[in-house]
Specification:
- The chain has 4 helices and 11 strands; from the N terminus they run ββββαβββαββββαα.
- The chain is an alpha+beta fold and 211 residues long.
- It folds into 2 domains: 127 residues, Nucleoside Triphosphate Pyrophosphohydrolase, CATH 3.90.79; 70 residues, no CATH class.
Length: 211
């Protein structure tokens, strides 16, 4: 059984409604990708206290953790990540500094998906983008195939309001691309030598989801 790692993330919003986004460091998994700041829950630690501690360690600021926004569980090849994100209020930003991350940005909600997010955060990002609108995000379609020594190929297709988000994990490496059309999706799938019958089935499911 794979180990489940419980982590917490902070949704920090400024007075303009922009969201704080942090780029992961070069020496950790998913280097250079974007995430909500936060980290692992230590043994015996309450999630909200863990988040307050992590934000203090990563950003040198104090926050108040408010309500739970989203919970996501994502399975990877060696472990399972369970992420809980909370709406938070910054109590004091005067001593802010990046301790662990490479870069940060305040992003408008509608532009969040222009960043390259870690896989675990993506569904929460979409929920946040459309939380103020009466928009239903379509369910994702999953395809997995064992390819001997190459390991598992996992294809995750997310039907968004304006695009199709393709995530592929193959041979332990992760690839993501935002696509506009089903033709672009087909071309990307062909690049990974996916069987034509499987591609036709996935495209068919995408059509059904978008209708």
């Amino acid at each position: 059984m794979k180990k489940t790692i419980e982590v917490v993330g902070a949704i920090l919003e400024n007075l303009k409604g922009d969201i704080f986004c942090a780029m992961r460091p070069k020496d950790k998994t998913f280097p250079g990708m974007w995430e909500f700041p936060g980290g692992k829950i230590e043994e015996g630690e309450e999630p909200k206290k863990a988040l307050e501690r992590e934000i203090r360690e990563e950003l040198n600021i104090d926050i108040r953790v408010d309500k739970l926004f989203d919970e996501v569980q994502k399975e990877y090849e060696e472990f399972v990540i369970k992420l809980s994100t909370y709406n938070c209020t910054v109590l004091d930003f005067s001593e802010f500094k990046l301790v662990e991350h490479q870069e940060f940005r305040w992003m408008k909600k509608e532009l969040l998906m222009t960043l390259n997010w870690v896989p675990t955060d993506i569904s929460t990002v979409e929920k946040l983008m459309f939380s103020d609108r009466n928009v239903k995000i379509k369910n994702r379609v999953i395809y997995k195939e064992i390819k001997g020594i190459l390991g598992t190929t996992e294809i995750e297709i997310e039907i968004c309001l304006r695009n199709i988000l393709l995530n592929i994990i193959s041979g332990g490496e992760w690839y993501q691309k935002s696509l506009r059309t089903q033709l672009e999706l087909r071309e990307e799938l062909e690049r990974f030598y996916i069987d034509k019958i499987v591609i036709d089935e996935l495209i068919s499911k995408v059509k059904e989801e978008k209708n």
